[in-house]
Amino acid sequence: MSINLSSVFKPSRHANPASPKTLQLGLQIAFAVAYIFVFSIQVSSQTTINPQQRPANDTSTFPSPTFPEASANPAATASTTIAVPAADQSHYIISPGDVLDVSVFGAPDLSQKAVVNSGGNIYMPLINYVHVAGLHVEDAQVVVEKAYFANGILKSPHVSIVITSYASGVVLMGEVVRPGIYPIVGAGKLFDILAEAGGTAASAGQVVTITHKGGAEPQIVTLTSDPMKSNSADVPVQQGDTIVVSKAGVVYIVGEVYSPSGFLMDEKGQYTVMKVVAMAHGTTKLAKTSKARIVRRTSDGNKVIPVPLDKILISKAPDIPMQSNDILFIPTNKGKQAAARGVEAAISVATSLAIVATYR
After folding, report:
1. In the chain, where do the E strands start and end?
2. What is the domain extent for residue 181?
3. 135 domain residue, yes or no
4. Does 255 share its domain with 324?
5. N or C terminus: which one in the chain shows less Cβ crowding within 10 Å?
6. pLDDT tens digits, one per residue of 327-344
7. Is residue 45 part of a domain?
8. Count of domains in the chain?
9. Could you tell me if 130 and 155 lie in one domain?
């Protein structure tokens, strides 16, 4: 069987082959589509910006992160200290728990803040531990300097120590503005501690009790407003002492006075019956001054003390001192009260008669 290949590959008469113009138009369309596709890929790749290469004028809608080291005001982020170190720390004795700012001049790598451990030592670079507890600041500086010199680290060391946090001091209690624990400052005396606490309160008395560390008998100090005697009250205090400022006593006056009240005893031993009566603006016309009395609280109960106020007022009897919590009572004269009521009744009757007579 033979096949005529010429008849197979010979185009049919009924076929409609594409014209050259049609083929050229198709190729142009294909090239156009390919060019648009390649161009879109290039544009998308150019619009993608590396975050690290963001233009300078590009403004982000998110807030910029802030870091502590980049703060414009480092003091604003610092922690608030409870107590400000005193300018004069020469009288303070270093104790465990204190925080020391040790500065070694000429060697900033050796300067640091050190905490006194329970053994009374601080760690310093290149010389290990140095014992400073129980020493004043000046003595501790010398000890550190000798340690650096003895170990051959520094030929002429100069060390400065500043206490930035206190672990112990004087316990101040009672009637003061700010009770608490205060370091030994200034000359190491009582008035320095009271000044650090803002002074005594308005309700403070004159008696200050100081209990020394390890002492058996407490020390009693009397405060006074007399400048000639105040220096004797400025006694030395030591670290570990407990200071208690007493509360001022109160005396009361009731009965036939113009201003019954209680008065704060701000001056020790100077409150008498006459002074309290004067502070109450005097007695009324109905007062029975011969029967005045003081009610005093004692360990055995209330005690009544007769007061001849009528004789005291005319200097026929000595004035009587009063103690804290005393109550001065001035009773009413019943006779004068009855007479006064009779006079008031007569005046009211006379007034009513005058009104009736007027209407008649």
Report:
1. 99-104, 112-115, 121-124, 128-131, 159-165, 170-174, 180-182, 204-211, 219-222, 242-247, 250-255, 261-264, 292-298, 301-307, 327-330
2. 170-247
3. yes
4. yes
5. N
6. 999 999 887 666 666 656
7. no
8. 3
9. yes
| CATH, residue 181 | 3.10.560.10
Residue 13 CA to residue 327 CA, distance in Å, equals 145
Task: Provide the pLDDT for residue 70.
Answer: 37
- Give the Å distances, CA to CA, from 98 to 84, 134, 160, 194: 14, 11, 15, 22
**How many CB atoms lie under 10 A from the CB of residue 181?**
14
Specify whether 327 is located in the same domain as 271: yes
* Phi, psi for 105 (deg, rounded to 5): -70, 135
Whether 219 and 192 share a structural domain: yes
| Beta-bridge partner residues of 174 | 245
Q: What does 267-295 look like in DSSP terms, one character per residue? A: STT--BHHHHHHHTT-B-TTB-GGGEEEE
- Alpha-carbon torsion 271, 272, 273, 275, what sign? negative
Structure token pair of residue 311: 């004789």
Q: How far apart are CA 9 and CA 16, in angstroms?
A: 15
Q: Which two tokens stand for residue 226?
A: 């007399």
